[in-house]
Amino acid sequence: MYAEVILSKAADRIDKIYHYAIPGPIIDKIKIGQAVAIPFGKRSETGYVVGFVEKADVERTKEIDSIACEKPLFNENQVKLANWLAEYYSAFRLSALRLVMPPGKKDVKSLKSKPRGEKAEPKAKAEGASSGPDLTADQAGAVEKITRSIQETDGGRFLLFGVTGSGKTEVYMKSVEQALSQGKSSIVMVPEIALTPQLVQRFKARFGDGIALVHSDLTGAKRRREWERIAEGEARIILGARSAIFAPAVNLGLIVIDEEYERSYKQDNAPRYHVRETAEYLAALTGATIVLGSATPSVETYYQAELGSLVKLTLPNRIDARPLPPVEVVDMRRERSGLLSQKLRDELFKTLKRGEQAILFINRRGYFTYVQCRDCGFPLHCPHCSISLTYHSSEKKLLCNRCGYSAPPPTACPQCNSRLLGYFGTGTQRIENEVADVFPAARILRYDRDSVSKRGSHEAFFSIFAEGKADVLIGTQMVAKGLDVARVTLVGVVSADTALNLPDFRSAEYTFQLLTQVAGRAGRHNLPGKVIVQSHLPDHYSIQAAARQDYELFFSQEIVHRQELGYPPFSRLISLLFSGVESSLVIKAAEEFGRRLMSVKREGVLGPAPAVIAKLHGEWRYRILLKGELDELRRLVRSVPIDFDQAKVRLTIDVDPLNLL
Ligand code: ADP
Ligand code: ZN
Ligand code: ZN
94 and 19, same structural domain? Predict the structure, then answer.
């Protein structure tokens, strides 16, 4: 028998499993997940045991020197998970393996190797079934179906569909309780721990010490301790952000993903995994049940529910029957100057006069310029890709960041011939200036990286607003999450179009989700709220559906566009991003790679084209987008040899990309 070993240090671009013979004295002790000392070349190195094979792939194998750490750093399921990650997301095995290892365990030499003790009994049978309120009939129906699936270990997948306040969190907690009573662990994923303090508090209040919190804000030691409590079965409820999906849960029964459409569930560096996909693999491996909860599911997820491969559980009503705040759409084509419409100014005036608070939102991603007709609202689109063209002031031209199409900006609107073409791209600073002009007495708080770090933290920053020490909060949708301030009665979306004009096929979806999310910030308590949405495209279906808070209305139209253009869920995507300091080398590498791809597959190879963010950190960026069936695309990418200098041009492969900027 031979051990399969991965080196603990990444050697340059080598991603390999080595076979080592196992000397007699340790043959009974060696286990998957252990760190071992191995001879490698002329040195001694540390490696991780990831498996065993009967036959080695080379004639002469070397022997393992010793076991460096008795206590396994990961278990067999976690190895499978890491292998799957590496394969699915075209990542290195080592970087995938690091995700499933105890956090901060990169230097195994400093490990104290305490043998794994008897498994602790799971703490407490929770607080029995009597905890929490009596469920409504809809909630009870949902919990019953989820419970049965956990019981049967059938890998059931559910979409819990309901607006904020419809009782989703209560369903999560009851389902977790049911899993506990069957002796099973649950993983509950939230987009960001710091931004969801209320959910965390409720879980803590309900389950106490049975919870392990896993997120990146914890110090290394604290995270490691949580990891151990999970591995020992001491904590059976794992609450966390992205990386919590890799926790070594004992007897996993349930995975909950709250607000599954949130982009923070996708990791932005290698391995570029998505929590939802990872959860699905885990569920297939363990038979665990998946619950995705949201009022605004991703189009991909809702489509699966429509097809029936996800079971839709609907919570149609808010628990307290409090109505959602009315949303009014202001047609900005009728306004001539400034960022704030007369309507928004009037409402702001009334709100401030009553001593209440307002939030003004802009889109986080509004940092590029697009061109839109001020008269008819027509946005300038690529004739080939149907995504917005971006304006590059240095060259005075419009560019498609998908296919590379470029053209000088027209002097008149192609639709109505108006000469009033607007160049848009709004910053928080501009809004602050305008609000300060109109309301000199208002205390304004502007959210951006600088203003937050000046106050020390998000919490410190938001507490200023929560305590009523500011009247108007201006920021991106980052400020929307979890913000629950009783005196906020007005929410203004300064420009809904910045999201709509993103050069991204998901722009309508983002717009709908953004508007729905920010609208939920107004009038959360006794004071009635109001939402004003400003747009040059007030009739766009995503804005109309958001104004009515009608997800199904949005989905029914969006899905038609996706199908017409063959975008997900009707295809899968892989993004190939070429980047480097010397633009000529980057272009050459991308074009050559593109040619080779196209010689194999004519359809669905888009680009290369300059990325929306054409230059980042001094590096030029070009993208090829592949569209088709995932396995075929993956084979296609593998079939093309990399024959450019990888020290000068980097190729970043992103499977199921969300960030196409
Ligand atoms: P969501 O997660 O969909 O926003 P929550 O689960 O937070 O909804 O429920 C909204 C509010 O209603 C919370 O304050 C919660 O405690 C309460 N609640 C939930 N379910 C019930 C119920 N069955 N009976 C009474 N109150 C409930
Ligand atoms: Zn026009
Ligand atoms: Zn194009």
Answer: yes
Q: Is residue 493 classed as helix, strand or coil in its secondary structure? A: strand
Tell me the CA–centroid distance for residue 566 and ligand 2, in Å.
28
Whether 26 is covered by a domain: the verdict is: yes
Q: Which ligand lies nearest the alpha carbon of 398?
A: 3
CA of 266 to the centre of ligand 3 (A): 26
Q: Are residues 241 and 261 in the same domain?
A: yes
**How wide is the angle at C-alpha 275 spanned by C-alphas 564 and 562, nearest 5°?**
5
Tell me the pLDDT band of 434, cut-offs 50, 70 and 90.
Answer: confident
CA–CA distance, 496 with 475 (Å, rounded to integer): 14
Q: Does the structure show a pLDDT above 50 at 443? A: yes
Look up the pTM and report it: 0.86
Does residue 508 sit in the same domain as residue 439? yes
The residue to mutate among 159, 168, 169, 175, having the most atoms of ligand 1 within 8 angstroms of its beta carbon, is 169
User: Is a pLDDT exceeding 50 seen at residue 389?
Assistant: yes
Residue of the CA atom closest to atom 11 of ligand 1: 165
Q: What is the mean pLDDT of residues 335-343?
A: 85
Range of the domain at 101: 2-107
Give pLDDT, residue 130.
61
Compute, in angstroms, the gap from residue 379 CA to the centroid of ligand 2.
8
Question: Would residue 58 count as lying in a domain?
Answer: yes
Test site for ligand 1: of 164, 171, 319, most ligand atoms within 8 A of the Cβ: 319
Same domain, 547 and 460: yes
CATH code of residue 147: 3.40.50.300
Tell whether 152 and 61 lie within a shared domain: no
Task: Name all residues whose Cβ lies below 6 A of ligand 1.
Answer: 133-136, 139, 162, 164-170, 319
Contacts of 43 (CB under 8 A, 6+ apart): none
Counting DSSP H helices and E strands in the chain, the numbers are: 18, 27
Residue 127 located in a structural domain? no
Nearest CA to ligand 1 atom 16: 170
Asked if residues 204 and 233 have their Cβ atoms less than 8 Å apart, the reply is no
Q: How high is the pLDDT of residue 11? A: 64
Tens of pLDDT, residues 465-507 = 889 999 999 887 666 666 777 788 999 998 888 778 778 899 9
Strand partners, 158: 291, 311
Give the residue whose CA is nearest to atom 9 of ligand 1. 167
Tell me, in angstroms, the distance from the centre of ligand 2 to residue 408's CA: 17
Contacts of 109 by beta carbon, 8 Å cutoff, 6+ apart: 46, 68
Q: Do 520 and 450 share a domain, yes or no?
A: yes
| Same domain as 489, residue 349 | yes
